[in-house]
């Protein structure tokens, strides 16, 4: 249906655009025909935000940005484009000006923090044998294995990159908290969601990978956001 906005899905650390696979299928079932999942380099917030802005600029109509994990920081930084009509955060960072994902993480260290390790090139990995229990404990061991083997490590320095002008201060937002998250503490997610003045906040009994373990519920929140935005135009 042509009245639906374009949905751009923005992945986080330790994964790529394919992490959105199940949500993409659910959105397609709901009639979304313009869905894009940006593939970011995870080399710096500036690089990732620029890649996302370029994809936003390619769209002709209104865009709803959806960010998972670190992708929330990216949509916060890149969501200032005029055709962006809303932001949806999925177990995601929603930093304020001057804040970084790393700084927020240090406030309440997540359970899985000890399972991260840098390599000699400066990339930060989740230890492969700890990936399932850290990132996606509510998926099958086989799904966790695939995610572990295909994980996309960020440059560790990206954690310290700060937001300049948070888009959520100007754009309507929605937020999904994962109550069993071991990568971003639920306490941090609750704090970030509360200051967004979000149109709606939902809590799912899910791991950090709620986009994969609860795709029906995640897609429903995205659809609810899109529907509200269309009806308010």
UniProtKB/TrEMBL annotation:
<dbReference type="InterPro" id="IPR029058">
    <property type="entry name" value="AB_hydrolase_fold"/>
</dbReference>
<dbReference type="InterPro" id="IPR000073">
    <property type="entry name" value="AB_hydrolase_1"/>
</dbReference>
<protein>
    <recommendedName>
        <fullName>AB hydrolase-1 domain-containing protein</fullName>
    </recommendedName>
</protein>
<feature type="domain" description="AB hydrolase-1">
    <location>
        <begin position="7"/>
        <end position="220"/>
    </location>
</feature>
<dbReference type="Pfam" id="PF12697">
    <property type="entry name" value="Abhydrolase_6"/>
</dbReference>
<dbReference type="InterPro" id="IPR052897">
    <property type="entry name" value="Sec-Metab_Biosynth_Hydrolase"/>
</dbReference>
């Amino acid at each position: 249906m042509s009245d639906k906005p374009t949905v751009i899905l923005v992945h986080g650390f330790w994964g790529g655009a394919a992490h959105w696979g199940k949500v993409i299928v659910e959105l397609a079932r709901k009639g979304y025909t313009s869905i894009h999942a940006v593939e970011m380099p995870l080399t710096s917030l500036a690089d990732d935000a620029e890649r996302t802005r370029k994809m936003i600029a390619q769209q002709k109509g209104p865009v709803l940005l959806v960010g998972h994990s670190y992708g929330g920081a990216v949509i916060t930084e890149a969501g200032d484009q005029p055709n962006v009509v809303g932001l949806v955060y999925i177990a995601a960072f929603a930093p304020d000006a001057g804040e970084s994902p790393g700084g927020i993480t240090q406030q309440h260290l997540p359970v899985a923090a000890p399972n991260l390790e840098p390599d000699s090139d400066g990339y930060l990995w989740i230890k492969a044998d700890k990936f399932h229990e850290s990132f996606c404990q509510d998926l099958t061991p086989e799904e966790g294995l695939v995610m572990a083997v295909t994980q996309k490590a960020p440059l560790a320095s990206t954690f310290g990159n700060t937001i300049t002008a948070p888009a959520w201060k100007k754009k309507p937002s929605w937020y999904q908290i994962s109550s069993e998250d071991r990568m971003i503490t639920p306490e941090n997610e609750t704090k970030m969601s509360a200051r967004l003045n979000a149109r709606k906040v939902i809590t799912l009994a899910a791991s950090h990978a709620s986009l994969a373990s609860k795709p029906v519920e995640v897609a429903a929140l995205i659809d609810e956001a899109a529907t509200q935005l269309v009806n308010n135009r």
